[in-house]
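Student: Hello, beginner here. Can you help me understand the protein record under this note? Any guidance would be welcome.
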Amino acid sequence: MSGKDLRMKRFMPSRDGRIVIFPLDHGVSCGPLPGLRDMESIIGTGIRAGCDALVLHKGMMRRLEAVPERPPGVFMHLSASTPMGPAYHYKVMAGDVEEAIRRGADGVSAQLNLGDEHEPEMLRDLGALGSACCKWQIPLLVMAYVRGGLAPSPVPDSAVAHAARVAAELGADLVKVPLPRDEAVLAQIAADLHVPVVVAGGSSVTDATDFLCRMERALKSGARGVAAGRNVFQHAEPERVMRALCGLVHRDLPAARAWAEAGPKGT
């Protein structure tokens, strides 16, 4: 077993080969969002509810030291940009693999935005990151999107599939994509790629059961997991939402049952 395979087992310990990722990297791109102001609390919430992986920027990894619960696998997120600058969709590298190893990460993650004017630079950086992850045997999660001044609007499913393929071609061990409108496209993406595909939770919605139904359809279409941030930490019952997601992913529960069992009577 390679070092990368061993680390992947920390992210996907269940025999079902599926994963629930809790991204908490929004502070750089969105600022101090509600739900992310007390990082120790929300990290603990995700761990208690059973998430398999956390995504954190380097500075927030030290918050793990104050969390009493045993952490799951941790991806250190390397991409950064803010809406206050001139190129919001241009994700630059704000760290590297060696630093992630020194800080105790089990893997790294990066975002790729195809359709931005700086797409060539992001492709170059992702290629170099894939090489470094191979050298150091560190799993690479790539969040593949179609965003920027040259991106079509609305984004066609074919572009989502292209972004996923680029991520896999350049070395991703896990690929995160937005849920395509046509679930058959997601099924084809999952079948074509040689690496697990997880779907993004998307913007926060008020109806948790509607969100869970979308994630259930994604899993039935071949997704190997879910990466949900705002629909968890911005919900009034974040721990319940995460427990429900784990029920969907690891127990194959229907959305309505997962939500019901995750409630007070199901704990």
User: Anything to note?
Assistant: The CA atoms of residues 240 and 262 lie 5 Å apart.
